[in-house]
Structure formats: C-alpha cells, structure tokens
Design goal:
Order of helices and strands: HHEHHEEHH
Strand order of the largest sheet: 1-3-2
Oligomer: single chain
Number of helices: 6
Helix content: 55-70%
Distance between the termini: 27 Å
Radius of gyration: 18 Å
Number of strands: 3
Strand content: 5-15%
C-alpha cells in the first residue's frame, strides 16, 4: 500500500490554492465577494442563513456584502416560495458572467502551466483529477 505524505499534500494544496485563487481577472473582487458569487453559482438560489453556513463571515458583514452585490447588479433577492418571510439570493446574468469569466481565465492560465509539464507529469496529473474529485466528495459527505 502506498503511503501518502499528508503533511506535504496539505502544503502543496494550500500553496496551489494560494496561487490559483489569486490569478488575475478582468474585474478585481475581494475573496469574500468571489466566494459568495461562486457559492451562488454552484448552489443557489440560497437564503442568507444558508449562505452564512458556507461563507466565513458574520451575518452583518454578509448582509452588507450581499447588499453591495445587489447594488452592483450581480445578485438579486426574491421571496422564497416556501416561506414568504424569507428571501432567496441568486446570481443575475451579470453575476453569472463574472463567474464564467473567472473560470475561463483560470482554465486558460492552468492550461499554460500544464503545458510546461512533461508528458509523464501531465499523465500523473490527469490521473490525479479523479482522486482529488473523490477526496472532495468524501469531504462534502462528512460536512
């Protein structure tokens, strides 16, 4: 059985994420803004309380951020059809364009980086994608 150096794997993932999340984009957004947009893209529409569970912000800060995103035309609120007192947050077309643009930029940059690998390294990386996806699934199931 092959041993995995969890300490090294953690460092490499953190280092990669640090570089990857900071890839330049057409518009500059702070991390919290991008996190909310990406969460709504993957999981929306959501109530603010549901969004609080995924974001690392206190309710006043998230409420303020959502108001700013709404003002900027990136997020909209609508009544929750299951509970008229609650509001659902979702991306507007402009918000979806921001998410798509960042994704496209990241794919382009990652392609440029992968192109610098050897054939053998690309083969290992290709096989690793399924393993990383499986780890993500396991983590999501445990959350």
């Amino acid at each position: 059985m092959t041993e995995v150096d969890a300490e090294r794997l953690t460092r490499v993932i953190v280092d990669f994420n640090t570089i990857f999340i900071r890839l330049p984009s057409v518009r500059r957004f702070n991390f919290s803004t991008l996190s909310v947009l990406h969460t709504l893209s993957r999981s929306g529409p959501l109530r603010l309380t549901d969004l609080l569970a995924t974001e690392q912000l206190k309710q006043p800060a998230l409420t303020s951020l959502v108001a700013k995103l709404e003002e900027d035309g990136l997020v909209r609120r609508r009544p929750d059809p299951t509970d008229g007192r609650a509001m659902l947050l979702s991306l507007t077309p402009a918000g979806r364009r921001v998410v798509r643009s960042r994704h496209t930029n990241r794919v382009t940059k990652l392609t440029e980086l992968v192109d610098q690998l050897t054939d053998a390294e690309r083969a290992v990386l290709a096989e690793s994608v399924d393993v990383l996806a499986r780890l993500t699934d396991i983590a999501a199931e445990e959350a």
